[in-house]
Amino acid sequence: MCVGGEGGGMSRIFRAMDVRLSTMTKRTKKVQEEEDTLCCCEYVNGQGERSHMGACCCDCEDLDDACDRFLKREPQKPDSFSKVAEVLTDRIRVPWLWGGARKVDLSIIPPLLLLPILLHVAALHFLLGVLVLTALPGLVLWYYYITHRKKGRTLFFLSLALFSLAYMYYLFVTVVVPRGDIGMFQLAIITLGVMSTLAALIRTKKGPGVVLQNREACHSTVTYYAPLPEKDPAMNGGKHEVMLMERAEVSEPTGAELKESHRKNWCPMCRVVRPPRAGHCRICGVCVLRLDHHCVWINSCVGQANHLSFLLTLILFLLTSLYGICLVLQSVCPKQHIFKALLYCPGVYSEFKTALCFTCAWYSSIVTGGLLHLLLVQVINISYNVTEREARIALREKSAQSAFWGLIVDTRIYSRGFWLNWSEFVLMGDKVNLTSFIPADVV
């Protein structure tokens, strides 16, 4: 009786799941049909309903409730502000010709407003410059600490990086070049450096190399139009295709299967067996081949497929930035040596444009210093054939040799010598290479 009751209960559960799957599939097909006919100002909201940008202020019950409570001086609900922010984020969009209006991430706006204002304020006086250029890195580090604790994605840092590059180039062309100290050849080199940096960044943003599920074990896919837990809401235009596995494939491997696939390599979130050196990123919500780290400045992980282009982006940006700083200092402080001009440039605040150029040179120097440290760490880790993730784990478990306050970490697992390590890094590509996973003491 017990066995029969349990079997009947399981069959009812499976029937309910099939009915739910059928309903979700029909709803998804309906939403997809609507999306195919969307005009540039229409979109599908978080509830899967068709909406229009002109109705952004209509039918907002959460906002109405919050305003009513504020006017009546009643306490707000614990989740009222988060719901209002979610609704506003979903409704602030820009017209798009293909697929309807696109959502705008609000985190890209602060750098566009604050950076020009703060740099212009810093150019007014020497003391204001010291205050702004000291507080600005502190604010950025504070915001990084907040977002890192919440393990959330944000476009703030990518927006700040791109706008800093674009704004510095704009000031160089409109303020420094008209002074007459910069030739066309030097301008061409700076332009080429900026374009090359952007091209390398675009290549890096194509993806770090994600560990994919075995699609042969999938019998259908369902598209969600709302963010799922542990998934990147920016992927695929806000849509999420979730593979529904066969019942025998959904459960975690147990017994002999668990021993064969190695318990430590099984990811319960992505439901895949990770190759060696792969890791799960809690921010992106995916498993990445040869995961190095999640870089907030590119809003993406750095893994096997984009590590080389990430390193190239750093090098191109640093070379362009250093050369641009030297040209600016030579223009605003022609009588001083380059290294001395950054610390002492008499009369630079007598003219606002000159002071603005000097302030931007200091700002670029601070950014360049931070990226030089990042490049140094990357070069050291590649030379020892260790990823940043592996280095952090080894330091935490005290299983590696370290020097210079943890700057150099040698796990002595995959390292085969300086030249072979760099050869493997340059030639690894985006495919799984099993020879790179073999420890050095086995070879």
The helix fraction, in percent, is 40-55%
Q: Please count the helical segments.
A: 14
Shape: globular
Please count the beta strands (DSSP E, at least 2 residues each).
14
Along the chain, the helix and strand elements come as HEEHHEEHHHHEEHHEEEEEEHHHHEEH
**Integer-rounded radius of gyration:** 27 Å
Largest sheet, strands/sense/barrel: 2 strands, antiparallel
Instruction: Round the mean pLDDT to the nearest integer and report it.
Output: 80
Strand adjacency order, main sheet: 1-2
Structural class assignment: mainly alpha
Q: How big a fraction of the residues is strand?
A: 5-15%
Enumerate the spans where pLDDT stays under 50 for 5 or more consecutive residues.
1-7, 216-252
Distance between the termini: 59 Å
Description of the structure:
The structure is a single chain. The chain has 443 residues and is mainly α. It is built from 14 helices and 14 strands. Helix 4 crosses helix 6 and helix 6 crosses helix 12. The chain starts with a helix and ends in a 16-residue tail after the last helix. The N terminus is likely disordered.
Features:
443 residues; mainly alpha; two-stranded antiparallel ribbon; two-stranded antiparallel sheet; 14 helices; disordered N terminus
Concise summary:
This protein is mainly α. The protein has helices spanning 2-36, 61-71, 80-91, 109-122, 126-150, 156-176, 184-204, 247-250, 256-261, 307-332, 338-341, 352-383, 388-397, 418-427, and strands spanning 42-44, 50-52, 93-94, 102-103, 218-224, 240-245, 266-267, 272-273, 279-281, 286-288, 293-295, 300-302, 401-403, 408-410.
